Amino acid sequence: MAVKEKLSKQKLLERLLGKKEPLTEMETSLKLKLMSEMLSSRTCEGTGAARKKRRFRMNKELFMRIVDGLSENVPFFQQRRDATGRLGLSPLQKCTTAK
């Protein structure tokens, strides 16, 4: 039953967002309420590591394009040798740990 209610709220919100003419005061308040409910329910789902993993998931192809772009244009992200001749961290390692 909860899934059915959630779907009907989503459909109602989609109709309100897609409406061309200006919304009435009641429709505006309903839209804001539905949006806040949906956003709060998404942030509260899951806990701990599972939540973090889902939240920070990125398409691998996109991430690799970012890594390639950074390694070509930003000297910090290029792999270099240290004073002893050993290779430092790879661009992939640096991008993964960069904040």
TrEMBL record:
Protein name listed in UniProt: BnaC04g51740D protein
Organism: Brassica napus (Rape)
